[in-house]
Protein 1
Amino acid sequence: MAITQNDFAHEKQRHDAEKPAFTENSENSPTDIFLDLTRTRTLEEIDIHNRSALKGDDSDGKVVFGVRGALAAVFLAGLYTGSQVILYFVGGSLGFISKDLKLASGSAWLPTANILAIAATCPFAGYLQDLFGKRYIALFGSACICIGIVLMATAHSFGQALVGMTVSGVGAAIGELTGLAGLAEVVPVKYRGYSLALVTAFVIPFCPYLMYVELWSHGNSVGWRWGPWVALMYNGVIGIGILFTYFPHTHTRAEGFSRRSIIKRIDFIGGALSITGLTIFLIALQSGGYTHPWVSAYVMCTLLIGLALIGVWIVWESTFAKHPMVPGELFKGQRIVGLAYFIAFAAGMNFFSLLNFFPVTFSSVYEPIPVQIVPIYIVKGERSALLGGKVFISRR
């Protein structure tokens, strides 16, 4: 039997050698179906690395990166940054906002409302993209940001300001996720690093936001409104740019699914549990030591109920949810994913604490004069960055 197989293989090899060959991907390749031909592929005709792939792997086609694609990349990077601008200016203006709106307490809920809206919307942003398309969801997110900013800029009551920050937070969640995802698609793989640098570059003009706040608010408590108006002008330009330049591919991960089936895959119970629990927990943290004593029934009840709901959410996601908000498969056999989540969580704690407490430090501890504040701000920031870099390098 072995001899028969060897003879057959040898005969097949001899027969293939006698066939005429043609080069695949060649313009002169024959098309006669009656010819018995052998294909020969040349490496020159094959883009092995798929440098202009639509995705980061080799599973998709190519990106036509022209002028419109470059402009779309610029506006998507701006959308990511624009989602955060209103949070910067409001977080740096809480003292002036409290004075203008005559708030005795509760001003810290303005940035908190924005952050909660982001947390509530982020898990469902992908489903919204599948249902309505990335272009329309990006435009919707930009519109929500602008509407929320207008409400905040024209607010003369705490309720209107709170609604404005919440609406802008919904848009910010969509804008941040859609901006990064869209940027990764419109830019070829070989330019991916430059596109990420572009995102960082758009943040640079807003880094000294505390200086801006002090300049237009010092001596005039109403001047804080310039922050929302500047954010509105910026996001308005970005939204118009996306309208005329961003036309993404129509492929989606939900291709072949009906809208009803997509909606059924949304974990509404998990979303309700997580947002309700987190909100009640934050109510306890915001009230303790300010409006109510830490040992009061109000603080203890909200604290325990919030923690209990968060615990129920964890049990629901890990045991009962058919399509959980955080799939367990993300962490199986991928240690780096868990580490990335932990690092992002720790970095977020630092970011939002600085966002809320850094302005209070400058207005309460130091004399609120821009020329004196900026050097302190730069020295503290650079010292923290150098220390963090030193720790990171030493750990390597």
Protein 2
Amino acid sequence: MRCSNTSSWKKVQEYLPEKSRLTESCLPDEYFVGIGRFGIHIDHYRVKEPKTRIILFHGVGEGM
């Protein structure tokens, strides 16, 4: 499911700290990477000068 195809992500924004909320102007780049028989959905948040890198796996194993 992509942010561009659903509005459900908008419904949770009011519960997040203001500085952590997503807006139409700061949505991630979304793409899929094929690894073996799996299609991995990537949400890539691009930051001009990142201080760190975070990799978060969620929903791992669903539909296997």
